[in-house]
Design a protein that fits this description.
The protein is α+β, with helices and mostly antiparallel strands. The protein is about 20% helix and about 35% strand. Strands 1, 2, 3, 4, 5, 6, 7 and 8 form an eight-stranded mixed beta sheet that branches. Helix 2 runs antiparallel to helix 3. Keywords: Hydrolase, Magnesium, Metal-binding.
Length: about 150
């Protein structure tokens, strides 16, 4: 487990790049790695669970929280960041905000039938290759395609 410090949140300016924490939820079945994607609330695009940083929480804890809220995942994050990807987040009535998402692996131990955003999202297990084709962000696609929890750096 990597030692992490809690996040502190300074004030941000309107045009600043925003950071989000993303969870790459995975399991290994019959020797094959599968990842869990969820749909976005608005357009229904396939994404990984992600959210805004929370004051006083570590990135690993935030990845576990987002995995639970958006996908019903009960799992564990070891604290290593797999990479980052950029995208523009559309927020009602505002210009698109530039965002940078830090991706953390969350090993899925259990999937709940009921979870906070169940009525707002779909979730689906798939291969890394299929997931890489379904997401819109090229950098996230590469992270998904290259991810293998069986190989430690």
């Amino acid at each position: 487990m990597i030692k992490q410090l809690p996040v502190t949140l300074p004030a941000a300016q309107k045009g600043d790049v925003r950071t989000q924490i993303a969870a790459l939820c995975y399991r290994v079945r019959n020797g094959k790695v599968q990842v869990l994607l969820v749909t976005s609330r608005g357009a229904g695009r396939w994404i990984v669970p992600k959210g805004w940083p929370m004051h006083g929480k570590t990135p690993a804890a935030m990845a576990e929280i987002e995995a639970w809220e958006e996908g019903g995942v009960r799992g564990r994050c070891d604290g290593r960041c797999l990479g980052v990807y950029s995208y523009s987040k559309q927020i009602d009535g505002l210009a698109a905000l530039p965002c940078l998402a830090m991706v953390y692996p969350v090993e899925v131990r259990d999937l709940a039938r009921n979870y906070p955003e169940k009525s707002q999202r779909k979730r689906k297990w798939m291969s890394r290759k299929r997931a890489a084709k379904l997401v819109d962000e090229p950098e996230l696609s590469r992270i998904l395609r290259d991810f293998d929890p069986r190989v430690r750096a």
